[in-house]
Amino acid sequence: MTSLQRPVVRGLNHVTLAVADLERSLAFYRDVLGLRVRAHWPEGAYLDAGGLWLCLSVDDAARTEPHPDYTHVAFDVAAEDFDSLAGTISASSRSWKENRSEGLSLYFLDPDGHKLELHVGSLESRLAHYRANPKADRVLIDDRD
Fold it and tell me: Which residue numbers delimit the VOC domain (predicted)?
């Protein structure tokens, strides 16, 4: 690295969610969402979500209701798997928002009230949608070159 370059974040390393009941949360993330358990201990677990390292950590202050803001974690799913997985999730979880964006999305809560989303698409597909449907107040930074 030269003196003119700044260090930059390379990507998302992991997400940690506080949970009240580890076994209940493990069952949800493993059995409903299909994440792979990589390690577990009495106070936590590590799961693999297609390369995303998800940590579940037992916390006495874990929430029981969803936070009122829009903050959420979105999981990627292939278009051909969306309907099946969305049906499984809908049967065991409650929704927190209706999908109003382009593409397939399901907004649901985990057992501790964390807001989650099942989504088909990528940043590039979202930007392509915005290019095809421009709005005067939306600025797209085109650095695809």
Answer: 11-121
